[in-house]
């Protein structure tokens, strides 16, 4: 395969190892400086120039887009996607995971552990937010920090308020998060490739530091993760839209809690802690995908008019409960069940003989009208918190700034 590694740091460990692993396997790998692309947009012909020349054909690219170039870097990756060049990490996936708030918002609707987190804007909402988290100590995080910079432990509510105020006055958006004390300065970094964890390490903070990042002096050791941690890491990466990811998890009393999902995970720390060929696993995965790429079904299937993909939920009392998929009559209505989610397990291509149970979710492809008819009118979710009425004048002032 012909692989382009998108990186601004050709000499850093990760880039060198990826190139070396590709070459060893008989592939042709070139490091392309992400910032030297020009994105060419013309009717029906998405194209890219590299160093001012039209780029040659690549089978795949592997983006290594750092936080400082997210906007341009993801635009380049998106352009490769338009040109049908395979990338394990999509532009959307990188954007989703880059911002800690966005990532947690997306993860929070799934059955995955995350530390209780809140995001507020108004000063008056800070104290109640801290109280909802169970009070101080709390963790305060800026949204796009990496390597432990911008992650602060506030021992008291007063200190927390002062830090938040200072950061907000410096135009930083901050998250407030429950401090997971029992993790005692340790976390797990699971390196996900495709649908498995190919290597994992536990990082342990040194001295009285609570951040376990290697850049903060954290020591790393190889671990074999339990199936629960493996499943959590793989699902988090998949939900983000990433096939190569470093998933950071805390070991809490209630199981794994995801802190963040990194779309350009470093290789040096994990390869030296585990002595595994992580770069090789990444390259092998990309090579299998290039030979037989996974498609984004939404992009490919909605081309025929009136057809699409939808999720049918089966709340208690739904008429299909207790019937098998064959008896449900879905196929006769031109609806095919692609997979069935039951609790945390996913059954792909469920057989016709499988019985539908209450609270199942059926991912279906078919006639949108027919699927729409099967969904009861949207039931309003009960609000858990009463929203205080805001003065309309105040709102208007805020929005017209
Ligand atoms: N809620 C938390 N409770 C306890 N420790 C935390 C919490 N959040 C982060 N940490 C510690 O701080 C480190 C850095 O946090 P993280 O969110 O991964 O930010 P960064 O992007 O800077 O690595 C983590 O690896 C972990 O050791
Ligand atoms: Mg981290």
Walkthrough of the structure:
Helix 1 (13-24) packs across helix 9. The protein has four domains: 2-97, Rossmann fold; 116-179, ATP-grasp fold, A domain (Dna Ligase, domain 1); 182-291, ATP-grasp fold, B domain (D-amino Acid Aminotransferase, Chain A, domain 1, 2-Layer Sandwich); 298-374, 2-Layer Sandwich (Alpha-Beta Plaits). The chain has a five-stranded antiparallel β-sheet, with helices on both faces. A four-stranded antiparallel β-sheet has the order 7-10-8-9, with helices on both faces. With 401 residues, it is of the alpha+beta class. It has twelve helices and 19 strands. Magnesium ion binds at residues 213, 248, 260.
Short characterization:
This protein has helices at 13-24, 70-82, 91-98, 100-108, 126-132, 157-169, 227-240, 268-274, 278-291, 297-301, 368-374, 392-399, and strands spanning 2-6, 28-32, 37-40, 47-50, 53-54, 60-63, 117-118, 138-142, 151-154, 174-178, 186-193, 196-204, 219-222, 244-252, 255-262, 307-313, 335-342, 345-348, 361-367.
Q: Any chance you could write out the topology, listing elements then pairs?
A:
Layout: E1 2-6, H1 13-24, E2 28-32, E3 37-40, E4 47-50, E5 53-54, E6 60-63, H2 70-82, H3 91-98, H4 100-108, E7 117-118, H5 126-132, E8 138-142, E9 151-154, H6 157-169, E10 174-178, E11 186-193, E12 196-204, E13 219-222, H7 227-240, E14 244-252, E15 255-262, H8 268-274, H9 278-291, H10 297-301, E16 307-313, E17 335-342, E18 345-348, E19 361-367, H11 368-374, H12 392-399
Parallel strand pairs: 1-2, 1-6
Antiparallel strand pairs: 3-4, 4-5, 7-10, 8-9, 8-10, 11-12, 11-14, 12-13, 14-15, 16-19, 17-18, 17-19
Helix pairs in contact: 1-9, 2-3
